[in-house]
Structures are given as C-alpha cells and as structure tokens.
Amino acid sequence: MTTLKSTLDTTSDEYAANRDSMLGKLADLDVEHAKAIAGGGPKYVDRHRQRGKLLARERIELLIDQDSPFLELSTLAAYGSNYAVGGSVVTGIGVVEGVECMIMANDPTVKGGSSNPWTARKVGRAMDIAVENRLPMINLGESGGADLPSQKEIFIPGGRMFRDLTRMSAAGIPTIALVFGNATAGGAYVPGMSDHVVMVKGQSKVFLGGPPLVKMATGEESDDESLGGAEMHARTSGLADYFAADEQDAIRIGRRIVARLNWRKKGVRPVPFVPPRYDEEELLGIVPGDLKIPFDPREVIARVVDGSDFDEFKPLYGGSLATGWASLHGYPVGILANTRGVLFSEESQKAAQFIQLANQSDTPLIFLHNTTGYMVGKEYEQGGIIKHGSMMINAVSNSKVPHISILMGASYGAGHYGMCGRAYDPRFLFAWPSAKSAVMGPQQLAGVLSIVARAAAQSRGQEYSEENDAAMRAMVEAQIEAESLPMFLSGMLYDDGVIDPRDTRTILGLCLSVIHTTPVAGADGFGVFRM
Question: Per-residue DSSP letters for 34-68?
C-alpha cells in the first residue's frame, strides 16, 4: 500500500500552537487583501458607482462562468511601496464559456486606472503566464494611461504589453478587449492591438490624445465622443468590432466571442480521482511558528494529493528530501519536498535523477519548499556538495516539464534555486503565510557580517566595539526578517500570491488544468552533470 498514514496529533498542544500561529498570519494577510479589494477607497468607489459603472471585480464576476472559481494573481503587488496595494489592476485566471482565460481588469478607482511601475510588472507576469500556458487574454479596460509622475519608471518597460499582445495574436492565442471607459494614450493601443474589440455606448473613450492635448498640439477643438467615442469607432474608424448598449451587454458579447473561438485544450485530460483521506483544515496546524522546528511534508502531501496516495522514490536515501509520484485532481505529478531543511549531496543527486525521470515520463513537478540551503563545512565541501548541488540546479534549470512551487516554510540560499524558485521560471509559485525567503536566515546573515567586521577591525589593529556589534546585528536581523516575509516578497512579485494552506489542493488543481491547455513534454537532454 502506498497510501500515506498520517501521524499528526490534532489534539496536541503543538498542533494548537501551530494552528493559532497560522491563523494569526492569515488574519494579517486578510487585512492586506482588503486594501487591494478596496481600490482607491470609499470616495472613489462611490464616485465610480454614481457614474453607473461596475467595479473591476464585479466585471470579472459577470464575465466568468457562474459559480466557477477565479484564481487571482499578484493580489499584493506594490505592498510596502508608495503605490496602492494591488497595482491598480486585477489579474487572474477564470473560466469563460468553458475556456480558461487570463483576465486583466484595470481598477478605475485607483487614479483612474492609470498604470504605475507595479502595474507594468503585474501585467507582464500575467502575460507571461498566458503565453506559456496558451490562455486567451481578456482585457477589461478603463485606464487613463500612464501615471505621469512615474513615467520614467513605466514608459520603457510599459511598451512590452503591446509587443506581447501582437506576439500572442501571431501565436494564435486570442486577445479580446472590452473597453468600459477611458483608454487614453498608451491605453488606446490595447484595443488597437487586440483581435476582438467591444466598446460601450456613451462610456468608451479611446484616443491617443484627449481634447486638451489635441487643442494644445493642433489648435483643434473637439469633444470626447467625436474624437474617440464608442459610436464613432463602431461607425467611422472601425476600431470597435462590437457596439454594446451597456457594461452588461459588453460582457455578454465578450462571452459570446469566447464561445465562438473554437478553443481546445491540447494537453492530457484528468482521470477520475478520489479526494485525500485527510481533512484539508488540518493543514493549518502542520507548520510550526518557529521555522527552526522541522515538520514532515508528507503530512501536507497526504492532505493534497488524490487518495493520499504517494509512491515515494528512494525513501531510504537522501532523507532530507522526499520525492515521489502522485496524482492531483486526476493529473499525474512528481513531488519534491524538503523534510529536514538542509540539502546534502545525497538529496541533490536523488533530486537530479528524479527530475530526469519526470522529464522522461512527461510528468509535471511540484516543489514543496522548506530548506535552509545546501550543507556547508569542510567534510561536505570535500564530499562534493558544490558539484552535487550544481547537478540538482542543472536538472531544474533544463527540465522542460511544467513546475509549480509552493513555499511552505524556509526557502533560503541556493536551496531556493534548487527547489525551483522564481528565477527558475516555475509556471506558478505561491507562498503560505508561514514562508520566509532570503539569501540566508536573519541570524546567520547578521552573524556573518559581524565576523567579517570583527576580522576587518582586527587586521587594522583597531578595538572592536561589542556594543556597536550588538546594535548592528539587531538592525540587520530586523531588516532581513522584514524582507523575508511572504507579503513583502509577494509585493515585489516574487510569487503569484500568498495563499491559505487550506486552498492548496484547489489552487494546484486549477494550475494543473491550466498547464494542460498545452501539451506537456519533457526535456530531450540535459547539460553536463559533474560526477
């Protein structure tokens, strides 16, 4: 039998403490998510409603199939910056007429939906996902163009969106623009470069330069409607393919466009499955509040994979990394999960072999992170930890099957790379509220700086101040701790979202379904492995 048997004691004090810690972090996360949902705040939300318009998330809710999920991405973009949390745009994956689509909706309650540097980064990430997974793109547009005070940060990278729209069309990936309000300056190129364009009577205003700019540039007097209104574009310029009576009608037309795409998935279909044997609610109490305390990721796997069934690969070798085969929502997967934090040579070689096998069988990989990195020390350096760690990173880098990463606990140093961190292009990467990621732990980093500073003072023949050292260490530890937290990293778009552990199985299932919009094929070969 390969069914995992849980040993988690849900009545223990340890479980209760872990659960309370996780719930506290989720409460903090809810506060930040609420900021993103609030958009520009009550004043601008009320003003928007008084104009008879729907909010960004309301438009999405009407667009997607009834009672279907919407996987919102990068919700915390711009967290910790001077810009509104969310980056003034909502992005995510939803099902429209049975087709999984990438949806982007400008939030007009945040500075009129104008784009700032975080908007550009968030939109860029969404378009990468759409291209890689062959998802039709639907833009729900209402934007005043670039946030002019930040133009130096957005003008150059912002042009990528228009390039990507044309490349998607060339690749046969449909692009659809539903224009609900202003699409000014650069925003006008979104409908201009989309395959299908819907505009709303009396609301859509699409022009490169509005009446004030035209007056300044040419001296010409004009009004919004004659310059760029929906009816003008439907009757005169031909930019609008469809002329909608109101927002609901535009969304109805958008759904009909998707229904007529004749879109088909090209990947494998899921097989029938049974749910895990253990309650997903119990995922709240597995990860300790103190990440120095190890936990068994098999307890997570047992609550995520179909039937809690897990065929472990090399279970007696390289015990700090669990590897094995399972299915999730009917899709085959390989799983790599850290068990005791540190990666040794054995774990690295085991991982490299396992990744090769997954590529040989065209099986997507899921990485469950809780690692402090590769082991250091004379014994391990002499034993080849550099070449063995490099072997694992080589395998991850050149693997062609889709990867999904979940940061559950620590994800430090090169261990983050070997477990397919953001720089290694996983199709999706999510973090639990318990996760932390940095070049190393705060205490270790502060300690290294202390040792270096102490040695430098000694080499100069100077007295070393223990008081200053203590202050420096405290300051560095606080800084690194803050910069290691998942909300900070999510704000930087180093993940696709911070998620409730209880949603892990559902989110992985949605991602696997999206991934199989395209054929899944492994690598034909790898680079040179140092033996």
Answer: HHHHHTT-HHHHHHHHHTT---HHHHHHHHSPTT-
DSSP structural state of residue 79: T
Cα 369 to Cα 412: distance, rounded to the nearest angstrom? 9
Q: Do the Cβ atoms of 404 and 367 come closer than 8 Å? A: yes
Q: pLDDT (tens digit, 9 = 90+) per residue, 186-223?
A: 788 999 999 999 999 999 999 887 777 777 777 788 78
Residues facing residue 115 across a β-bridge: 146
CB neighbours (10 Å) of residue 274?
Answer: 11
Helix or strand holding residue 190 (H, E): helix 189-192
Query: At residue 121, what is the residue type?
Result: R
Task: At 394, list the tokens.
Answer: 């080589």
Burial track 483-509 (b if 16+ CB lie within 10 A, e otherwise): bbbbbbbbbbbbbbbbbbbbbbbbbbb
Gap between the Cα atoms of 33 and 438, Å rounded: 23
- How far is the C-alpha of 78 from the C-alpha of 405, rounded, in Å? 22
**Model pTM score:** 0.94
N-to-C CA span, the chain: 35
User: Six-digit token pair at 344?
Assistant: 């040794």
How far is residue 348's CA from residue 338's CA, in Å, rounded to a whole number?
11
Strand partners, 182: 205
Distance CA 411, CA 434 (A): 11
Point out which residues pair with 176 in neighbouring strands.
138, 196
**pLDDT in the model for residue 148:** 64
- Measured at the CA of 105, the angle between CA 49 and CA 32, to 5 degrees, comes to 80
Neighbour count for residue 66 (Cβ, 10 Å) = 6
Q: How far, CA to CA in Å, does 55 sit from each of 41, 144, 184, 280?
A: 12, 16, 19, 33
β partners of residue 90? 105
Helix (H, G, I), strand (E, B) or coil at 177: strand
Indicate the helix (H) or strand (E) that contains 380.
helix 378-382
Q: Quick one: DSSP state of residue 424?
A: G
434, 306, 316: which is closest to 368 by C-alpha?
A: 434
Residues 6 or more apart whose Cβ sits within 8 Å of residue 428: 129, 404, 405, 496, 511
Question: Model confidence over 405-450: pLDDT tens digits?
Answer: 999 999 999 999 999 999 999 999 999 999 999 887 788 878 888 8
**Residue 203 carries which side chain, given as an amino acid letter?**
Q
Least confident of 284-288, 373-377, 398-402: 373-377
Nearest CA among 335, 357, 369, 321 for reference residue 512: 335
